[in-house]
Every structure is written in C-alpha cells, then in structure tokens.
Write a structure and sequence with these properties.
Helices cover 34% and strands 15% of the residues. It has helices at 22-29, 84-91, 101-113, 120-126, 137-153, and strands at residues 2-7, 10-15, 48-51, 54-57, 69-71. A five-stranded mixed sheet has the order 2-1-5-3-4, with helices on one face. Bound molecules: FE2/S2 (inorganic) cluster (FES) (2 copies). One FE2/S2 (inorganic) cluster (FES) binds at residues 95-101, 132-134, 136.
C-alpha cells in the first residue's frame, strides 16, 4: 500500500507491506537505526519514539495505521546542538552499553513534557516500562531530574 509519513519533519512517500511495524520501517526502510529493537513485543521500551509528542512503542505500532508526526532520537538534537535531555544523560553517565538509551531518552522527554517528572517516585513510575539490563537506573533518574530543571528554566 502507499503511505505518506512525516518523520523528524521530513515527509516520506513510500510503498509498504501493511504488516510493517513502525520500528521496522524506521530501522530498515528509513535507515534511522537510533531506535532500538529489544524484545519486539512491547516489553522493554527500547523502541520508544514520539507520535505527535506522545511516547509510543514503535514495535507495537503498524506503520500503515499511523496518523501523526513521528519523532525519533535522531530528531530531537544533533551532535553539535544536543537536546538538554541528551546533555543530561551524558553529564550523569546515565548509560553503560547504551542499547536502551534512545528509548530511555524519548520516554524521559515525554515524562518531563507531560508534567510527570515532579518527584522521583513519579519519574520511576512513569519510566517503569523502560528496562535497562545494565541497571543504570540511578543515573537515569538523576539525568531526568537535571534535564527537568534545565527545561523548566528555559520556559
Ligand atoms: Fe518495543 Fe521492546 S522493542 S518494547
Ligand atoms: Fe545497557 Fe541500558 S545502558 S541496557
């Protein structure tokens, strides 16, 4: 089927198999490999992207039925101009192998933007769908709290 999709502000027109997930479309068709495939079953959060600003598990989303603007980790900042949440992950050493990190960052950004980053327990609850096999949870929490303060100061 024919499909038109906006990803990171770029309009893509394509032919796709209706069974294609958004995750496979991003990684295999658009070559946006920052979004990771962990479990491929909605259990780990590694594939988290935003659709119209809301965090979505791209492994559970069929690309054909998608209606909205997709933002991936490649779309929130650049190497020269990183987003405050990306800077905070670097500053607080909030990763080890880095495999879960793009999904953690996209979930963290939505956690802050949606006003769920008040208390540490609230952040932990909101981020509970993002697993980290390296158990960098303490530093991820510190990074989110730090980015929240930076982003609030920038408002
Ligand atoms: Fe989507 Fe694990 S790859 S939740
Ligand atoms: Fe390795 Fe999270 S940094 S899985």
């Amino acid at each position: 089927m024919k499909k038109t999709l906006s990803v990171n502000g770029v309009i893509h027109e394509m032919e796709l198999d209706p069974r294609t997930t958004l995750l496979d479309l991003l990684r295999e068709t658009l070559d946006l490999t920052g979004t990771k495939k962990g479990c491929d079953h909605g259990q780990c959060g590694a594939c988290t992207v935003h659709v119209d600003g809301k965090a979505v598990l791209s492994c559970l989303q069929l690309a054909a039925t998608l209606d909205g603007n997709v933002t991936t980790i490649e779309g929130i900042g650049t190497e020269d101009a990183p987003h405050p949440i990306q800077e905070a992950f670097l500053k607080h050493d909030a990763y080890q192998c880095g495999f879960c990190t793009p999904g953690q960052i996209m979930s963290a950004l939505s956690c802050i933007n949606e006003g769920n980053a008040g208390a540490s327990e609230e952040i932990k609850r909101t981020m509970s769908g993002n697993l980290c096999r390296c158990a960098a949870y303490k530093n991820i929490l510190a990074a989110i709290e730090s980015a929240r303060d930076v982003m609030e100061a920038q408002k």
